[in-house]
Predict the structure.
Amino acid sequence: MNGSGPLFGFLLGFLIFVPWGWYKLSQKNRGWGYYALLIYWPVVGFIVACCLSKKEKSTSTDLATTEETPSTELATTSEIHS
């Protein structure tokens, strides 16, 4: 064995494509599924990472949590009878 078997090629490809692909995906604001693709199939995941467009982070201000909502506290018996 001279060390140039298929396992060596796989490890070399993994060490080259995965960190570079992770960097590209982090710059494009993508979800965990793309990272999983990159881990399972490094070359395919890297090609997909290169082809994706940048996704803007959602900063929506029209969410219901930003508006004042009525209190959901229960009334005490003294408040009910008064």
